């Protein structure tokens, strides 16, 4: 009997523990899902506060806008912010006006505080080149990801001690897939760059359905007609800003967006982090280059010296790199190259999957400093077999492609590509990609281009490094026997797997996206996960091609007179 009593007592005790655990779990989930924000759970005093929230929020915003010289209240360590955008992989970009004083700090100095009071460390990552806005990056906490809608965080200089110290947060977080993200003013019009308006390649909204809207205030905003709509690029007429508040014009911080009007969805204003600068012009401090090169780059600093060194010696005068949010040593390498006499410029372009838009931007941005533009990636090298017997490189080599006649109608020169495989390399080749990757596929793949910037169609349309041209210009396609781009595409697995981060093209599926598996943009035989396929080191090897390796050793090799195994290339210095 006593034995049975002890069993019953243990059973009751365990049942109480289980019920208590379930209660605590349900309570936490209810709190995390935002139940404490429901009106029916608020006290009468709290409900009255909720009714007055719009007026109180307005006063709080006005208070936050006033500069303070010392920390005297909770408000002094809450940083006034603009908009916040949700990027891929749960990254949140918080924009701060250039008028607000912030410092880089230690990386842990700032915090993103979300509406369910979860916090995440924030760090200053970028200063946008055209608006000078500062961008902080933090990660959306796991608990916050379960709550819909996503709400923009507050940015603070330290984590708040109490919930009451954070003002009510109600503004929805902007999604990067539906956003006006950049603006550029030319002499004749304004060019906007926006995601989510034209979602499918080759299918564009007609300009008649769109307007460019200048200004935040719906009653005083100025609208102008859209003259071109293609991919993520929208061109519109310059606005008459006399109706805008004087402050916006004086500060040159005029937000600009795209308005969509159609029968199905009505009128929609696309969220924007872009600003219009009325009198924006490019300052020219250098002679116009005959040939420049432009590419989009992400965490590829270790490839840069070889690429710049080689192409500069065959005739490229200036390099314009669109930095897609790198966090490696890119800026240090660029500074070293410039100190050594090269001309390398970086343009911060952190927007995900916007390669085509970045190239469109470069075609107008560089027009005042470059005549021709070479569009090749950081792992691509232009090469001509007729150079094989040259003892030294010449800056006239690639520029010989440029038509000599001033009235020539050739607007774009197309060069075929050979794709190289891993060539049994297990890590990044110490002497560079031209020295380590020597085995390639047999059939040529795709083309890259050299473009006359004055010949670009006003739509700025481009695909796979080729642009649409004005009606009176034409293409010239070069023979593979005369000119080729060595594309070191399939590198050692330790390098190639970084591509799984995401593709840069707006219209190409990411590596982990299980769509369009037979696309030419995918590696044959590669799955959807960053898992090394069996025999990767020897894949895509059909032709042994050491032409560029041998030639560059002769041109740039150091210490090769007595030995071919113990040497350095000039870009290793």
Structure explained in plain terms:
20% of the residues lie in helices and 26% in strands. It has 573 residues and is an alpha+beta fold. Strands 17, 18, 19, 20, 21, 22, 24, 27 and 28 form a 9-stranded mixed sheet that branches. An 8-stranded mixed sheet has the order 1-7-4-5-6-3-2-8, with no helix packed on it. Strands 9, 10, 11, 12, 13, 14, 15 and 16 form an 8-stranded antiparallel sheet that branches. The chain starts with a helix and ends with a strand.
Secondary structure elements and pairings:
Layout: H1 2-32, H2 44-51, H3 53-65, E1 78-79, E2 84-86, E3 91-96, E4 110-113, E5 119-127, E6 134-139, H4 142-145, E7 154-156, E8 174-175, E9 179-185, E10 189-195, E11 210-214, E12 222-230, E13 233-237, H5 246-251, E14 254-262, E15 266-269, E16 275-276, E17 289-297, H6 301-313, E18 318-323, H7 330-339, E19 344-348, H8 355-365, E20 370-375, E21 380-383, E22 410-419, H9 433-436, E23 439-440, E24 447-452, E25 462-463, E26 466-467, E27 474-477, E28 484-487, H10 493-496, E29 543-544, H11 547-556, E30 557-558, E31 568-569
Offer a concise description of the structure:
The protein has 573 residues and is an alpha+beta fold. Helices cover 20% and strands 26% of the residues.
Inertia-based shape: globular
Total count of strands: 31
Helix/strand-derived class? Answer: alpha+beta
Helix content: 10-25%
The main sheet comes to: 9 strands, mixed
Using brief descriptors, characterize the structure shown:
single chain, nine-stranded mixed sheet, 573 residues, eight-stranded mixed sheet
């Amino acid at each position: 009997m006593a034995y049975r009593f002890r069993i019953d007592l243990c059973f009751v005790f365990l049942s109480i523990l289980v019920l208590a655990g379930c209660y605590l779990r349900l309570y936490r989930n209810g709190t995390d899902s935002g139940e404490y924000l429901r009106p029916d759970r608020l006290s009468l005093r709290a409900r009255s506060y909720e009714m007055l929230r719009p007026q109180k929020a307005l006063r709080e915003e006005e208070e936050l806008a006033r500069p303070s010289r010392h920390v005297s209240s909770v408000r002094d360590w809450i940083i006034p912010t603009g908009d916040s955008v949700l990027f891929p992989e749960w990254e949140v970009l918080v924009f701060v006006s250039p008028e607000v004083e912030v410092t880089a700090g230690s990386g842990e100095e700032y915090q993103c505080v979300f509406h369910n009071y979860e916090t995440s460390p924030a760090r200053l990552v970028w200063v946008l080149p055209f608006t000078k806005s500062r961008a902080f990056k933090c990660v959306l906490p796991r608990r916050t990801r379960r709550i819909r809608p996503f709400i923009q965080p507050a940015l603070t200089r330290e984590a708040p001690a109490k919930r009451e110290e954070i003002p009510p947060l109600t503004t929805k977080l902007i999604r990067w897939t539906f956003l006006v993200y950049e603006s550029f003013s030319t002499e004749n019009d304004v060019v906007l760059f926006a995601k989510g308006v034209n979602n499918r390649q080759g299918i564009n909204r007609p300009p008649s359905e769109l307007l460019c809207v200048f200004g935040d205030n719906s009653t005083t905003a100025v609208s102008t007609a859209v003259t071109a709509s293609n991919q993520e690029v929208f061109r519109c007429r310059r606005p008459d800003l006399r109706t805008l508040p004087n402050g916006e014009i004086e500060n040159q911080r005029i937000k600009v967006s795209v308005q969509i009007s159609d029968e199905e969805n009505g009128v929609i204003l696309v969220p924007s982090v872009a600003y219009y600068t009325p009198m924006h012009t490019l300052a020219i401090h250098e002679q116009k280059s005959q040939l420049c090169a432009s590419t989009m780059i992400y965490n590829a600093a270790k490839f840069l010296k070889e690429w710049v060194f080689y192409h500069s010696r065959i005739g490229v005068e200036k390099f314009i790199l669109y930095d897609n949010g790198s966090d490696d040593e890119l800026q240090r390498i660029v500074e070293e190259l410039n100190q050594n006499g090269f001309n390398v410029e970086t343009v911060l372009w952190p927007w995900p999957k916007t390669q085509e838009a970045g190239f469109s931007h470069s075609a107008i941005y560089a027009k005042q400093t470059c005549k021709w533009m070479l569009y090749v990636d950081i792992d691509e090298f232009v090469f001509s077999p007729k150079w094989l017997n040259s003892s030294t490189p010449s800056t006239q080599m690639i520029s010989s492609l440029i038509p000599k006649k001033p009235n020539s109608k050739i607007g774009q020169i197309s060069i075929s590509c050979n794709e190289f495989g891993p060539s049994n390399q297990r890590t990044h080749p110490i002497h560079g990609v031209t020295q380590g990757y020597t085995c390639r596929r047999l059939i040529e793949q795709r083309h890259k281009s050299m473009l006359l910037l004055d010949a670009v169609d006003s739509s700025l349309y481009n695909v796979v490094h080729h642009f649409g041209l004005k009606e009176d210009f034409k293409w010239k396609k070069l023979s593979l026997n005369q000119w080729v781009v060595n594309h070191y595409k399939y590198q050692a697995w330790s390098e190639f797997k970084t591509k799984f981060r995401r593709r840069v093209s707006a219209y190409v599926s990411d590596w982990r996206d299980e769509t369009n598996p037979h696309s030419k943009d995918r590696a044959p035989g590669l799955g959807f996960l960053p898992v090394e396929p069996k025999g990767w080191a020897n894949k895509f090897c059909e032709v042994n091609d050491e032409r560029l390796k041998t030639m560059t050793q002769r041109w740039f090799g150091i210490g090769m007179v007595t030995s071919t195994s113990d040497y350095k290339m000039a870009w290793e210095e």
